Amino acid sequence: MKHAFLSAAAAIGFAVLLAAAGSRGAARGSDAGADAPSAAESAASLTAGARTEPEAEALVKADYDGRFFLPVLRDGEIESMDLQTYLTGVLLAELPERFSQQTRMAQAVACRTYVLRSYLRRRHSPAAVCTNSGCCQGWVDPQTVSPARREAALAAVRATDGLVIRYGGELIEATFFSCSGGKTEAAAEVWGSDAAYLQSVESPGEESAAHFRDETEIPLTDFCQTLRAENPAVSFPAAKGAWVGEISLTTGGGVSRIELGGQVFSGRTVRRLFSLRSTAFTLTLTDSSAIFATRGCGHRVGMSQYGAEAMAQEGKSFEEILKWYYRGVDIEPAEL
Ligand SMILES: [Zn+2]
After folding, report:
1. How far is the CA of 135 from the centre of ligand 1 (A)?
2. 63-93 burial string, b = 16+ CB within 10 Å, else e?
3. Of 27, 261, 282, 296, which is the most buried if we count CB atoms within 10 A?
4. Residue 42 and residue 191 in one domain
């Protein structure tokens, strides 16, 4: 029989973690921009300190992932899946194939951290996660792709076996997204809950991303109707100059608040209403349309996949990438 816990030591470790984690609200790994993860951390009560490098190495070779089984919600059914297979499938779903190995490794560690945290917080209880990328993390059955693709993903998972990201001893909310458009957002400014490790950082070199810059054009009548449905108090006088009022921006360059039709909307609300790529947008009104020009793709909090790839191309390691996007964190084995 296969079990989720490898050993008594691991079980005790996770019991401690579970007590520390409590049960928070919805989390979100791979974006889309709906409800916020509860990024605020409760006080950690872990007893294990940071491990030294040689100890970490020894544990990495112990094949943690292959022996840790997760209940995964897939197509409405709960499937018991070992962490190695799960993470390989997540990499296949979440990262472009052409990305380099250090980026895949950074992504593997972020996704492992995300799923273990979700497991501890009983997201989808009794499942740990689902395979819907709009909710948790996407997943592609590794058996359905070419051997070369599968091997590349599996190699990244194996090379980071058991490694997770912690801040102050607690697993972090390892959020990630496609591209920031140049700068990421602080969690506090997007979701209202602060996390010391989720701050706004520069993220250069993402220009090759398909949605680095994008445009969404909405017919003016739809624009007005959509806003009116959201807030009936809006008004749109003949002079369009009065339609757009004050705009406040976040540190990461996203729209925090914007006044439209005399009413204030959050950038996230506007993003949701008009299915924008991100909250980093400018708005231009023409005679017939509202044109949103967006920068970046995703919630833009945490690790930028295209930014990570740019760092990998410069020769940075997966650890350097993770420590750039998640500030002040430790990368260490999951087993305590
Ligand atoms: Zn889910």
Report:
1. 4
2. ebbbbbbbbbbbeeeeeebbbbbbbbbbbbb
3. 296
4. yes
Ligand 1 centre distance from Cα of residue 127 (Å): 9
Q: How far is the CA of 140 from the centre of ligand 1 (A)?
A: 15
* CA-to-CA dists, residue 204 to 178, 179, 208, angstroms: 13, 10, 11
How many whole angstroms from 131 Cα to the centroid of ligand 1?
6
The SS3 of residue 81 is strand
Give me ligand 1 centre to Cα 130, in Å: 4
Whether pTM > 0.85 for this model: the answer is no
Cβ-Cβ contacts under 8 Å for 315 (sequence gap 6 or more): none
Supply the mean pLDDT for the chain: 84
Report pLDDT digits (tens) over 138-194.
Answer: 999 999 999 999 999 999 999 999 999 999 999 999 999 999 999 999 999 999 999
Identify whether residues 227 and 197 lie together within a single domain: no
Structural domain harbouring 46: 8-207+299-333
> Is 188 within a domain?
yes
